[in-house]
Design brief:
This protein has 122 residues and is mostly loops. It has one domain (1-122): Pectate Lyase C-like (3 Solenoid), CATH 2.160.20. The protein is 7% helix and 7% strand. A two-stranded parallel ribbon has the order 1-3. Strands 2-4 form a two-stranded parallel sheet. The longest helix is centred in the N-terminal third of the chain and has 9 residues, at 3-11.
Length: 122
């Protein structure tokens, strides 16, 4: 599946995209509120400024994804792979990051403490 197909199907009312492969997809500014991307491969995807509040990204591979200025408020990111991801200015209010993994190359907003959010450093 590519980004255009995802956006088209989402606009038609579909919300469940479990385990979809969107590696490298360009979804800049996409409105994907409440989408289910559980266990999806979004490695290297560009989700800058995307609206993903209330979405399920549990178990998703977001390695090296660009989430700069994305809105992930209330999103589930349980056990997600955030190694190398860009999370600067990302809204994470109420997001569940329990068990999500990160590494030294993950870029967080100034002052963000992943340990307090129950994330795991790999």
């Amino acid at each position: 599946m590519d980004a255009d197909e995802l956006i088209r199907r989402y606009a038609a009312g579909e919300r469940d995209f479990t385990a979809v492969n969107l590696a490298g997809a360009k979804l800049i500014g996409a409105n994907l509120v409440g989408i289910n991307l559980y266990a999806a491969d979004l490695s290297g995807a560009n989700l800058a400024k995307a609206k993903l509040w209330g979405s399920n990204l549990g178990g998703a591979n977001l390695a090296k994804a660009n989430l700069t200025r994305a809105n992930l408020s209330g999103a589930k990111l349980i056990e997600a792979n955030l190694r190398g991801a860009k999370l600067r200015y990302t809204k994470l209010f109420g997001a569940n990051l329990t068990g999500a993994c990160y590494d030294d190359s993950t870029k967080f907003s100034y002052g963000f403490n992943p340990e307090i959010r129950n994330m795991r450093k790999m």
